[in-house]
Every structure is written in structure tokens, then in C-alpha cells.
Amino acid sequence: MEMITDAEVKAASLPQLNEICERLRREIFDTVSVCGGHLSSNLGTVELTVALHRAFDFPRDKIVFDVGHQCYTHKLLSDRAARFHTLRQEGGISGFPKRQESEYDCYDTGHAGTAISAALGIAKARDLKGEAFQVIALIGDGSFNNGLVFEALNSLHILNTRVLIVVNDNGMSISPTVGGTHDILGEMKAGMKPENIALFEQYGLSYMGVYNGNDLSELLPALDEAKKRLETSCVLLHVVTQKGHGYPFCENEPEATHGVSPDPRPHSEYSAALGEELCALAEKDSRIVAVTAAMTDSLGLREFFRRFPERAFDVGICEEHASVLCAAMATQGMRPYYAIYSTFLQRAFDEIVHDICGQNLPVTFCIDRAGITGADGETHQGVFDLSYLSFIPNLAIAIPKDVGEFRAMLRAGANWNSPLAIRYPRAGVEGRVLPVVIGKMEVLHSTMSDIIVLAAGERCIRIAEEVRKNAAARGQDFSIVNARFLKPLDEALLNGLTETHVITMEDNVRIGGLGDAIARFYRNTGKKVYSLGYDDAFIPHGKPVSLAQKHGLSREALENLIGELYARG
Hints:
Rossmann fold
């Protein structure tokens, strides 16, 4: 796409601006169709972003995108139009704001609820340095119900600075927005309950709304007025947009088109298995409840919500609250299954430690998108969960080798009287459903070799089995164990191993995960432990296989290590 400059946006007439919006919308649709990415959220914010670029002077002025997956128009209007075709590709531009990518991106985002706090911090630094520029936080109504937002609002009087908060209200996060904040915004859109406006004004905000965020004729004068009000106070500008605007299918299917993949999906998804198994368990056991934080469909729970609405809870983007909710229900005899992406579970770390594991409560964490996930980059790679969960007492940690084993682990969780975390990738092979005993590993291949590989999870087991087949042609062999439980460790199996060389493999950073646990177990025993996993680094966006190879987990890495051990004799 030919670059559209800020100067063009500022000089354009209203009809010309509308034409620019359509050009941007076509470019976003065409690029996401090839590269994948967040489609409907970006289609819905084209006019709003164009209006902000018209009204403000970026990059001198600063804009913080909450979550950041709606920043594509901003990237096209800054200095990245010529590179937009590389969106989410390895070595290309990110699907989220990145400070190292452009001076137009003032703050890295990727998780919900951070924009207002970040905008306040930037504005306060501006004041302390005696500088003069505007700071805008662009936040969706789905993020606006996150507790961190209200912590930020609570500090407005304390910080005594000025920012513009634009609430992009489209009634959606990934799933439809839920909860009391959603209801308050809905009443404001309908012109009901003016006392709701007073609520925000008590925080110190000058409220403006409600404006059509897909209509530049409304947005431009509203932003001019907001800039005047910023001279004396913080401003909350409430706009309404349509997710997927301009493309009827996206408008009608905003959840299905929130995130679009360019690749055909593998034949079996763990989320589908989760939904099926939880429905089967709930049919027989009235204690089973399902909890999610604004991701009902992405996590496979739609059918559970339909069949068991009284036992299904979507609490919005409130991961900490969801954790405490699960803990409290468990104290009363319920069996909560908390479904969440790996990268989002880390937001609730304190509640996992204190409320769930500290009380040794039977909550089952269903941790989706574990390991390298690929194109969403650093903020979405699920490569830390084994590390940040491994040292918490009372918590069992399971890593299924396939979907069938995942089903068996879900069933085992219904009768496990302590916390259980099951972490798994998005998709893989189905496999047989055989009973599992929590804390027991599985020998997949046994030889007389002096080398054994403890592989955790589907990606690692697949690599190990491929390498073993190739090694046989060179007269090499090694044993393989399905290390399906990081905690509790299978001490009986580990104590019985006769091999000297123990190789661990995990779809996780090496620090604090399986490799560290096995190394501690075998300390001072004479066994030599070698760990394969990811480097101590944040992993950028790209294709999962390529990223894994570059960051320490690959077939080549294992082949080379096996070859070195054989060469030593």
C-alpha cells in the first residue's frame, strides 16, 4: 500500500478522509487474509484511529493501545505501510505495538487493562520533565472491566496529571463483554441513568459521550472539544464502534473473525476435547463448574455454557478474580475447571499461590496455548508456565502427550483433591484415552543404551521419536519417557533408571522447568543431565517450528547432542 502521511490526513477533506479509511480497511483485510492476525477489531477502529491521527501530532503526542491488537491502522499511518505485508511474519512487523519497531509506538502492550496506567505514567513523566505533549489511552469496553483500570482511575487525583481516555465500546472483547461495567456503559449508550456519568466524574474525569466511532463527522469535532477540556482535566471520551465494520461477514461474526489464521487448522484441537470432556463430567457430577475470563469460544466452552448455564461463568478480562472465585467455590465442595491461555494465567500468579495452592483446593487449571504459539509474539508465547508453577507447593503439573491423554487427565482431575494444572498446545494428534495416575510417567521406548530422553508434551515427544528413528540408521539408540508430570515427579521411575546420560526436553524456557527439576533430583548421583528448552529470552513473532529451532528446541539440537554423547563413548 502507498504510504498515507499524517500531513495528508490533516489536509484531507471529509470525503477524502472517508476514502482514506476505505483504503486502509481494504489493506487490513487483504493483509490479514494472507498473514493472519486480528481482523474484526481492526476493521472496527479505522475511523477512530484516523480521527486521532488527524487531531493529534504523533509521535510527539503519545498513544497507548490497550491490548494493542487494534493498532493496524496506526501502523499504516505511521512509518510502516511499506512493511505492512510482513505483519506477524518472522523478521516482519509485530501485530502489537513495539517501542523498538517505531517511535510512533510509545509503550509495548499485549495484555488487557494496562493502557490507562501506562498513559498516566507517561503523562506524569512529561510533567516532571517540563515537556508539552498529549497522552491518549485507547481502551476497549472489554478491557475496561479489568481491575487494573480501576486501580489507575483511583490514582487520578494522586497523580494530578492530564490524559485522554478513549473508550472504544463495541460490546466485545473476544467474546461478548459481560459484567457490571458492561451494563453501566450500556445504560450510558442508551441515555439512561445519568448518575453513571457522575461515577466517572467523581474519579476526576470530564465525561464526553456517546459518539459514533465509525463516523468521522462526529468524531472530529468531539476530539477538538476533548483537546480543549484536556487543558484543565482528564477526559473520558466514550465512542461506540462496530467490530468488523465495513465487511458484513465480520460484522455478523465478530468472535469468529477476531483472530484469523492463514493456515489450515490441524485435525484435532485440545479446546474441543476440553468442552466435550467437561460436558461429560458435568452430566454425571453436579460439582463440576467451568470458569473462563472472556474466552468462552476460544477455549471450547460454548457447549458447556449452553448445557449447564448455571455452572458456567465468564467473568470478563479479570483473571485474578476468576482464580479467587474458583478457590472459594472449591472451599464449598465444587470442582472448578478454570480454562485460560498460558500467557494470561501468569496475571493471576498471586492468587494461584495464596488462594488456591495455599489452601490446597481442588481447582483444575486448563492451560491452553502452552509453549511457543507463534505469530502474536512475546506477550503471547506460553513458555513460562512450567517455570512459574513448578515451585508452588500442593500443585500437580501435567503435560499430555496427545489429546487422548489430555482427556484422561481431565477425568483424573475430577477426583484429585488438590490443585492440578494441565498445560497443552492449541492442536495436535488425538491419541487413545487411557487412564493416567497423577504423578506417574510413561516409558515409550526402552533400550540398553546409556542415554534416555525425558520428553514433556506433544512437541517434544514428536521430536524425540523422529530423532530416534533417524539415529537407528547410524547404529544409535536411546530410551524415551513421556514425562507427563512435572509435579509430583515419578521418583520410583527416576530412581530405577540405569542410564548415565539423562536428556530433558520441554516446550518451555529451560530455567525453572523440567530440566531444572530433574537436575536437582539427580544432584550428586553421578548422572549427567542435559536440558533442551528455550533460551532465557523473550521470543518474538514467527512460525512456531522456526522459532523453536532458533531458541533451543529442535530435532537438530537433539541429534547433535545424541551424536556427541555417542562420540564420547
